[in-house]
């Protein structure tokens, strides 16, 4: 009787895919046919697993991660991965990767999982051409589409990451995010305490915050489209505590706040370069928190925004800024010598009528007759001395 019970238990809990992995030689390839395979597998040797894209399914049992990669030189291609556990502390994921290098995840579809891909101490690896989405919980109860921790020299390219909580890089250096699409997430890219990362040619749309940078050095953000951030924040790019930050040739449009820049005293000397961007059709183009310092703002097209520059707390416009050769559609000067540069600087003042900077509810009355009159009177004869918050010494002039 004991032998019979043991046989039944073995039959019920056997996992043919795990058995094939255990039996395979290192660096071999397992080709899976169409069909459904049992998940909760562990790959602890160099191995390639290839499925038929859209027709090979690996489903977990709702406990733990569906696939755990515990060896370097692993490649997964053409797999539909779903049904992880729900444990936030254990970071249950579609794919968990730990202390590995030279691993590659390609052409996979990851869905109905808590976390999409968890990368902890992963190096020289790639995540390419995947679709990643998580369980349809309230957004705060979802996991991250990508959780990248202490991981360096990786490439995240041409993925679609949608309806997840965040994509996070913590203590992770020299990574590239290129050609991805981020739709409907909370923090679509959140980089903290990470250096030398590049974010190139991605599309961000319908996220609460498209990009957030906290405690990063030598970061470049180039040729991205940052559109239609929505929700409670509605921020395109939030910049705080970063040094040598290059933001170049991006389009930032249809956000509540296009760029939100923190300039507290503790961030003194942290340079930001905002160059050759289009910043248009936002409620606020440039929103500064505290002092405006250490910014190079050049050759941008800033137009069709409700507000060009906003500063929400006390602080000055310091000489450490270099603001030149931007196009501002509100510039009212002339170009008498025809060199396409305005004869006078473009200056943005904070008048006494800017009450909505301190009370968002007053924005409801923006452009109403009473606010228009108040705005006119404040500019004509300000009842308090206005604060200079931005000065473009050489604004670009375009003929009407």
Walk me through what this model shows.
There is one protein chain. The chain is mostly beta strands and 400 residues long. 8% of the residues lie in helices and 44% in strands. The strands form 3 sheets. It has a 23-stranded parallel beta sheet that branches. The protein has a 13-stranded parallel beta sheet with strand order 2-5-8-11-14-17-20-23-25-27-30-33-36, with helices on one face. It has a two-stranded antiparallel sheet with strand order 37-38. The longest helix has 12 residues, at 2-13. The model is unreliable at 1-12 (pLDDT under 50).
Helix run count: 3
Uncertain runs: 1-12
Molecular shape: elongated
Strand content: 35-45%
Q: Give the helix/strand class.
A: mainly beta
| Number of DSSP-assigned strands | 38
- Characterize the biggest β-sheet: 23 strands, parallel
Mean pLDDT across every amino acid position:
89
Radius of gyration: 26 Å
Fraction in helix: under 10%
How far is it from the N-terminal to the C-terminal residue, by CA?
94 Å
Write the layout of secondary structure elements.
Blueprint: H1 2-13, H2 16-23, E1 28-31, E2 35-38, E3 41-43, E4 47-50, E5 56-59, E6 67-69, E7 74-77, E8 80-82, E9 93-101, E10 104-106, E11 109-111, E12 115-123, E13 126-128, E14 131-132, E15 146-149, E16 155-157, E17 160-162, E18 166-170, E19 176-178, E20 181-183, E21 187-195, E22 198-200, E23 203-205, E24 209-222, E25 225-227, E26 235-248, E27 251-253, E28 257-262, E29 272-275, E30 278-280, E31 284-289, E32 295-298, E33 301-303, E34 307-311, E35 322-324, E36 327-328, E37 346-350, H3 369-380, E38 387-392
Parallel strand pairs: 1-4, 2-5, 3-6, 4-7, 5-8, 6-9, 7-10, 8-11, 9-12, 10-13, 11-14, 12-15, 13-16, 14-17, 15-18, 16-19, 17-20, 18-21, 19-22, 20-23, 21-24, 22-24, 23-25, 24-26, 25-27, 26-28, 26-29, 27-30, 28-31, 29-32, 30-33, 31-34, 32-35, 33-36
Antiparallel strand pairs: 37-38
């Amino acid at each position: 009787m004991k032998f019979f019970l043991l046989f039944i238990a073995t039959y019920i809990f056997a996992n043919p895919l795990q058995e094939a992995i255990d039996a395979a030689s290192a660096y071999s390839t397992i080709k899976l046919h169409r069909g459904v395979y049992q998940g909760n597998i562990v790959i602890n040797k160099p191995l390639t697993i290839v499925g038929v894209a859209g027709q090979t399914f690996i489903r977990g049992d709702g406990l733990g991660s569906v696939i755990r990669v515990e060896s370097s030189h692993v490649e997964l291609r053409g797999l539909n991965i779903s049904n992880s556990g729900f444990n936030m502390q254990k970071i249950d994921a579609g794919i968990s990767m730990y202390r590995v290098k030279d691993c590659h995840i390609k052409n996979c579809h990851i869905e109905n999982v808590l976390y999409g891909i968890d990368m902890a101490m992963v190096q020289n690896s790639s995540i390419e051409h995947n679709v990643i989405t998580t369980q349809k919980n309230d957004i705060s109860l979802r996991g991250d589409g990508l959780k990248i921790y202490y991981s360096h020299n990786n490439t995240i390219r041409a993925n679609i990451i949608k309806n997840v909580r965040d994509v996070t890089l913590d203590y992770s250096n020299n990574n590239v995010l290129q050609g991805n699409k981020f739709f409907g997430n909370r923090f679509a890219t959140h980089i903290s305490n990470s250096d030398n990362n590049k974010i190139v040619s991605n599309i961000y749309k319908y996220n609460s915050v498209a990009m957030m940078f906290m405690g990063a050095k030598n970061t470049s953000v180039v040729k991205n489209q940052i559109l239609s951030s929505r929700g409670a924040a509605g921020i395109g790019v939030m910049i705080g505590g970063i040094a040598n930050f290059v933001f170049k040739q991006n389009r930032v449009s249809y956000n509540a706040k296009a760029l939100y820049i923190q300039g507290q005293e503790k961030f003194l000397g942290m340079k930001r370069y905002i160059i050759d961007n289009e910043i248009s059709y936002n409620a606020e183009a440039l929103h500064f928190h505290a002092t405006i310092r250490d910014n190079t703002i050049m050759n941008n097209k800033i137009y069709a925004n409700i507000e060009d520059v906003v500063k929400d707390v006390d602080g000055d416009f310091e000489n450490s800024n270099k603001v030149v050769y931007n196009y501002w559609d509100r510039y009212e000067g002339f170009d008498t010598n025809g060199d396409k540069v305005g004869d006078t600087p473009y200056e943005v003042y904070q008048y006494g009528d800017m009450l909505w900077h301190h009370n968002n509810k007053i924005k409801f009355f923006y452009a109403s007759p009473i606010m228009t009159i108040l705005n006119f009177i404040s500019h004509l004869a300000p009842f308090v001395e206005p604060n200079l918050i931005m000065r473009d010494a050489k604004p670009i002039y375009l003929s009407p």
